[in-house]
Design goal:
By secondary structure, the chain is mainly alpha-helical. The chain has helices at about 15-30, 45-65, 75, 85-105, 110-130, 160-180, 195-210, 230-254; strands at about 1-5, 5-10. The protein starts with a strand and ends with a helix.
């Protein structure tokens, strides 16, 4: 919590960045879908669905991982104090978007494809908030001496795991924006492949990056010492691979 422009009012860098991320993500979706052959949902609908269900899912996921910190309803609702998990927000937002598209008769797979760069750049901005607030930090290292916690001793440096994700996500946003610009996903048989490829790429990054994380990773671990996020990455990776295999077979048959 800091003072803004000398005025003694509290503001939270993470919350502000998430707000900016939502706005940029929505307009990036508009840019990528501008030449779509199918009708797209109104921007206001996209903004409401992603913001409400994204934050709700992220909060629920965090509470499930760290139930010991949430004894009252006030604790659960105090989102401004932190406590969001990306995977939870992404999954619930996808479910809500799927239901919305089915009701309104939009192509969910097409919408998912066009939203990939928005998801990546929005996530990158969120990770900037993590970097500023020293959450999601990495283990100590002597290889990269650019980041340390305020509580660390002098000369102690850590892997900037937040920065790793920021760079990777920006690269993914650029790559998938270029792919969408080619119109490759406009064919019905190829819809959903862009979204699946993104999930595969991010799952790999997240799985590997988790090994470098030093913050608390949740309330349970497997016997292989994998975090809940790594388990989720494995499930999403497998599901995306299976989807691509099914789609590829349908393309060949067509």
């Amino acid at each position: 919590m800091k003072s803004l422009l000398g005025i003694d009012l509290p503001f939270y860098s993470y919350g502000i960045l998430m707000g900016i991320a939502f706005i940029i993500a929505v307009f990036l979706f508009k840019y990528n879908s501008r030449n779509s052959s199918l009708p797209c949902p109104p921007l206001i609908d996209i903004l409401l669905i992603i913001s409400i269900f994204g934050v709700l899912g992220a909060r629920i996921n965090y509470i499930l991982l760290f139930p010991q910190y949430y004894k009252t309803l006030r604790d659960c609702l105090a989102i401004h104090e932190g406590g969001l998990v990306y995977y939870g927000g992404m999954i619930l937002a996808i479910i809500a978007l799927f239901i919305y598209c089915k009701i309104k008769k939009y192509s969910f797979l097409m919408v998912a494809d066009y939203f990939v760069p928005s998801l990546a750049i929005g996530h990158a901005l969120g990770r900037i908030g993590c970097l500023i607030n020293d959450c999601c930090y990495g283990t100590t290292t002597n290889l990269i001496k650019i980041y340390h916690l305020k509580t660390d001793s002098i000369g102690v440096f850590r892997h900037p795991t937040q920065l790793y994700e920021i760079i990777y996500l920006i690269i993914l946003a650029v790559i998938f924006t270029y792919i969408l610009k080619t119109g490759w996903q406009e064919k019905d048989s190829k819809r959903g492949l862009v979204a699946s490829l993104y999930i595969i790429c991010y799952s790999i990054l997240r799985f590997l990056n988790e090994f470098l994380r030093a913050d608390s990773r949740g309330g349970f671990f497997t016997y292989l010492n994998l975090s809940p996020a790594q388990l989720t990455s494995i499930v999403l990776f497998i599901c995306s691979i299976l989807f691509i295999i099914i789609k590829t077979k349908s393309i060949k048959r067509g």
